[in-house]
């Protein structure tokens, strides 16, 4: 019988898989090539874009996706259209400055999923980004049917790339939203939406218990730190731990690819310039 990694010892089919030699080759921290959920001084982060770039290069990453909050998140310094233009000009300048290193900065945004399932920029503005993360941050007390319908509508927006922290939980302080995760997983697989494993230790969301089912349904994932500081980048390790416990392999995690390879994912195609 194949050795069973400690993370898988949950009586969740690992014994049978081990006997058949069918255990997954679990994701490792060294497999992660880029960081795709980071906040900056433009929003509610505490570091500049360039400081975060230097920190990522120092840690061996090859790209960084900047994702400050969208304009509805006024409490978190949500970006106006003018703010976005200024930030993108800085990103263009920094990409030119760091071109010789091979490092790349991607233009992203963390969109608010509004109560009606829309997001808070029109298509003209959404087309400016390389990728987007859509997350629920408000109207958290909806019933399950309405919340599920709300999130699914956002996932069907052609400019949404990633579903952020799918249950909205804050460990030890806020319960998850009421949402039918089985329907969310089904829609993510159908629409090729990437599911975030939010590695921030206050969230750890998606919970590992849903990772295996989502993988079997055909979903892909990112492991992202939701970092608001340089130190927060290192929280990626917690996300790797969640992914390992959820039976995920390198091939299941989108940000194990380099920046150019991201184009192969249907939700990045046509977004990266």
In words, what does this structure look like?
With 273 residues, the protein is of the alpha/beta class. It has a single domain, classed as TIM Barrel, CATH 3.20.20.140. The protein is 29% helix and 13% strand. The protein has helices at residues 14-19, 49-58, 81-97, 123-126, 144-155, 181-191, 208-217, 236-245; strands at residues 34-38, 63-66, 104-112, 131-135, 162-163, 194-198, 220-224. It has a 7-stranded parallel sheet.
Brief summary:
The protein is of the alpha/beta class and 273 residues long.
Break the fold down into its secondary structure elements and pairings:
Elements: H1 14-19, E1 34-38, H2 49-58, E2 63-66, H3 81-97, E3 104-112, H4 123-126, E4 131-135, H5 144-155, E5 162-163, H6 181-191, E6 194-198, H7 208-217, E7 220-224, H8 236-245
Parallel strand pairs: 1-2, 2-3, 3-4, 4-5, 5-6, 6-7
The outline comes out as globular
> For this structure, what is the CATH class?
Alpha Beta
CATH superfamily: Metal-dependent hydrolases
Q: What's the pLDDT, averaged over the residues? A: 95
Count of domain modules: 1
What strand line-up does the widest sheet have?
1-2-3-4-5-6-7
CATH architecture: Alpha-Beta Barrel
Largest sheet: 7 strands, parallel
Per DSSP, the total helix count is 8
Low-confidence runs of at least 5 consecutive residues: none
Give me the strand/helix succession.
Answer: HEHEHEHEHEHEHEH
Nearest-angstrom radius of gyration? 18 Å
